[in-house]
Design goal:
Elements (H helix, E strand, L loop, with lengths): L2 E7 L7 H17 L2 E7 L1 H4 L6 H18 L7 E4 L5 H10 L4 H5 L2 H9 L6 H15 L5 E4 L4 H18 L7 E4 L30 H9 L17 H14 L3 H7 L5 H27 L2 H30 L3
Parallel strand pairs: 1-2, 2-3, 4-5
Helix pairs in contact: 3-12, 4-7, 4-13, 7-8, 9-12, 10-12
The structure holds adenosine-5'-diphosphate (ADP) and tryptophan.
Length: about 325
């Protein structure tokens, strides 16, 4: 029997190259490997923990579904759904809250970082975010969860909760494992010491950036005063990051790329990279625009996936309720 695999992305802004190389590209490869029973979802409830405009939320959700499909996720091969359309996620999160030590949540680095970044909106949802994430994963008996390294701590908490729960109430849940991608941390183009993130748009390449924007951002990418195109994250973090992008998009090994650009200037390398990125995402952009032109179709795909997700998740809730003596 195939192992279950699950992951989610928040619909809270445009997807960038870090999301693509760290998550989405990997989702597509895992789906197409045929080795897993794949589940991918839009973590819309998670995205409510940050400030948002209700008028934009629906568009952000549809945009993410369109990105999933344009990148190659296929509803015939994977279960694609929207978190808030499956109430069991919220239900299990409320139950898990009662087994989650306050101290464990206080230690979460993402909570600390986000609380620092949004001082006027340190809400309880932000604090209990990892509990909802645990519910997302264990409702579907996911054995594997492909995520970037920023999510490992949350998965560790999920594993702790599963062990605790199973030892108290009998084996109900499966302990998930993270599946690490090759590119776990793409860095900002303007500050290669920092992770590429949508909150820093100059250092961030969005998947639907136009070719001129891509060329401009790559041209302005911080490098170093040297000349050599060599992978050395300590001494040459900027060039190393650009090499990571080149390798991630072509699937070629870094030494081979270094060899190709041996003796060539940074300008030449950057031009080649900008061209590569533009070409790589041209079909993605076209496909996504076509999908977004028919929002009703996207909603239908989501609803169909969510219907099946409800079936699976409700079965699990039923078992939990039985074990607890709930009616
Ligand atoms: P952001 O940091 O831009 O807010 P998210 O937190 O929404 O991005 O991340 C969505 C997914 O993309 C997660 O699986 C995360 O691990 C991955 N990811 C985000 N930024 C990067 C990055 N710079 N490098 C690699 N993966 C990333
Ligand atoms: N927390 C993840 C992020 O910020 C998104 C997410 C929510 C997720 N639930 C999940 C990822 C379950 C994997 C599994 O990127």
């Amino acid at each position: 029997m195939k192992s279950n695999l699950l992951s989610g992305i928040q619909p809270s802004g445009r997807l960038h190259l870090g999301n693509y190389l760290g998550a989405l590209k990997n989702f597509v490869e895992l789906q197409n490997s045929g080795q897993y029973n794949c589940h991918f979802f839009v973590a819309d409830l998670h995205s409510l923990t940050e400030d948002f405009e209700p008028a934009q939320k629906k568009q952000q959700i549809l945009d993410l579904i369109a990105s999933f499909l344009a990148a190659g996720l296929d509803p015939k091969k994977s279960l694609i759904f929207v978190q808030s359309q499956v109430p069991a996620h919220s239900q299990l999160a409320v139950i898990l809250n009662n087994f989650t030590p306050f101290g464990e949540l206080s230690r979460m680095t993402q909570f600390k970082d986000k609380a620092e970044a949004q001082k006027e909106n340190i809400n309880v949802g932000l604090f209990t975010y990892p509990v909802l994430m645990a519910a997302d994963v264990i409702l579907y008996d996911a054995q594997f969860v492909p995520v970037g390294e920023d999510q490992f701590q949350h998965l560790e908490l999920t594993r702790t909760l599963v062990r605790k729960f199973n030892s108290k109430f009998g084996a109900i849940f499966i302990e998930p494992q993270p599946l690490q991608t090759k590119v776990t941390r793409l860095m900002s183009l303007t500050d290669p010491e920092k992770k590429m993130s949508k909150s820093d748009s100059a250092g961030c390449l969005f998947l639907d950036d136009e070719s001129e924007t891509i060329a401009g951002k790559i041209e302005a990418a911080v490098t170093d005063s040297g000349k050599e195109i060599k992978f050395d994250p300590e001494l040459k973090p900027g060039i190393s990051n650009l090499l990571t992008i080149y390798s991630g998009l072509t699937g070629r090994e870094i030494p081979e790329i270094e060899k190709e650009f041996e003796g060539k200037s940074y300008v030449r390398f950057k031009k080649a990279l900008a061209k590569l990125i533009t070409k790589h995402f041209a079909p993605f952009r076209r496909k996504k625009a076509r999908l977004l032109a028919k929002p009703e179709k996207l909603e239908k795909i989501a609803l169909r996936g969510s219907k099946l997700a409800n079936k699976i998740a409700n079965e699990k809730i039923k078992v939990v309720k039985e074990r607890f003596g709930l009616l």
